[in-house]
Amino acid sequence: MTIGGLTEFDDFRSFQIRQGKIGRDEAWEMVKEENKPRFDEIEWYAETIDYDINKAINIINSAPRRYSI
Fold it and tell me: pTM for the complete prediction?
């Protein structure tokens, strides 16, 4: 999300809209929740693979963006 401007959730919900499975308003409500960072899970994963979470966040935040806000 930070670098590309969208997530796999955005892509999946967009596909569901095109297939007529859900409406845009419903999809928007779903991705607003799905795209929230789950810091506890990110932290757990970083600890599991013995990687410094702060280093990872700094790398992500310093990467060039592929979109402009």
Answer: 0.69
Q: For residue 13, with 0-12 CB atoms within 10 Å meaning exposed, 13-18 middle and 19 or more buried, which class applies?
A: buried
In a domain, 58, yes or no: yes
* Residue whose tokens read 């960072």: 37
Flag whether 1 is in a domain. Answer: no
Which amino acid type is present at position 39?
Answer: F
- Cα separation of 45 and 47, whole Å? 5
Domain that holds residue 25: 8-62
Task: Report pLDDT for 6.
Answer: 86
